[in-house]
Amino acid sequence: MLAQPEPVRLWVGWLVFVNLLVPLLFIDKAEAWASMIAFAVSAVIMTILYEQFGYARILGLAHLLVWPFLLYWLSQRWWGIELPLMRLWIAVLFVSNSISLAIDAIDVARFFLKV
Which of 8, 55, 58, 92 could form a disulfide with 111 if both were Cys (CB 3.0 to 4.6 A apart)? Predict the structure, then answer.
């Protein structure tokens, strides 16, 4: 990870912040736990993929397998969230993870197409 270009390191740091650290502000809410658990599950899958393939584009599969379910679930709960700061966090998480999923989809496709 340290060998990655600065923008990649910043992006990964942002994802950790949004998915794992900010939810600590809402630790008593199911949405926060869902985000942290989804992040942990993705990390476990990514570790398994890394052991099999090394640092390769296939690692994005970890997000593709978990985050769509998180985003769908959060979207279903959106209108029931009363805390404005929590709604802001979920909106930022939704945008950030969606961007990451788009990048991951391209990376995984390129891995399988060998391009």
Answer: 58
Show the tokens assigned to 72: 């769908």
Residue 113 sits at the vertex; the CA angle it makes with 1 and 106, to the nearest 5 degrees, is 55
Residue 63's domain spans which residues?
6-113
Instruction: Give CA–CA dist 86/62, Å, rounded.
Output: 25
Alpha-carbon distance of 70 to 42, in angstroms, equals 11
Per-residue pLDDT of 81-109, as tens digits, reads 999 999 999 999 999 999 999 999 999 99
Rounded to an integer, the average pLDDT of 26-48 is 98
Helices (H), the chain: 6-16, 30-53, 61-77, 84-113
The answer as to whether 31 is a domain residue is yes
d(CA 9, CA 46): 16
pTM: 0.93
Task: State how many domains the chain has.
Answer: 1
Residue 67 and residue 75 in contact, taking contact as beta carbons nearer than 8 Å: no
- Which residue bears the tokens 């090394």? 54
Structural domain contains residue 14: yes
